[in-house]
Amino acid sequence: MIKLFTHNDLDGIGCALLACLVYGQEEVAFETCGYDFINDKLTEYIEEKNFENFTRCYITDISMNEEVATKISTLVSPRNEISASIQNHFQLLDHHTTATFLNATSWAKVQLQTEDDTLCCGTSLFYDYLKWQEPQALALLNKPLIIEFVEKIRRYDTWDWTRLEDLEAKQLNDLYYLLGKERFMAYWLERLSKGQGTFDYDATHKLILEMRQNEIDKYIEARNEDLTIQRILSYEAGIVFADRFQSELGNKLAELHPELDFIAMININGGVSCRTNKDTIHLGEEVAKVFGGGGHAKAAGLPVTDTIRQLVVEAIFKQ
User: Full-prediction pTM beyond 0.85?
Assistant: First the structure.
């Protein structure tokens, strides 16, 4: 059995699909999670010795803090009394700047871009890893439809879709949230398993995608009217409360408000997503990391803890 901890977005689900294609759906136990819970989940996996139930553990498109990383390194150390088989148990693949410190370990590969300067994503890194590390994977994954599917995810996650004007990549993310995790995975696992044809959407999907775009446009317009400005650290930030369409909303608001350094979108149940179109700020390092999160230069996120949620409740109902 394979264990997979992966991010709870399109890129993370792409990794889960690849694992199911290579190892078989019944042989993969995966959990999707955000930065709020990844450290707790990995700590439980180690301390409860759940690793004894799996041959490998992949961590994709997300990373842990230094404390949990140390626990993994200690566990897989040759000096550990546990069987030598555990030494190759963990493999992390990530592309976020805030995770680069993990490259000092034996079990992590954090790569932001390829040698030809193509930006990486979790799915593209996992695809390359599986293709060359698992003997059966090359024949299973080296199909035009799968290659194109991986590239669509990479283009969306790195925001290359805007530069390349690849609307299909952006629509793939819309479809993920429209169908939900289970339906999306079932649909694409069936299509990718057959590996036939080229990447496209059927008539039904095209219709619901058009309806979703109209919904997104109206949502952006409404949130723009609610935007407030606040100084965070040394930057001028636009603040909105938003629980939907964060990537598209954040980038559009940044475009509409060039006077702001970045946009912060607060989802009390899901964390804070930050976006910028400026080259003068690194959101992952200079903002998100300060508040316990991480990410890239122009897209990052940070958690909303249970303590903060409780403070919000108390502030609302303060007498």
Answer: no
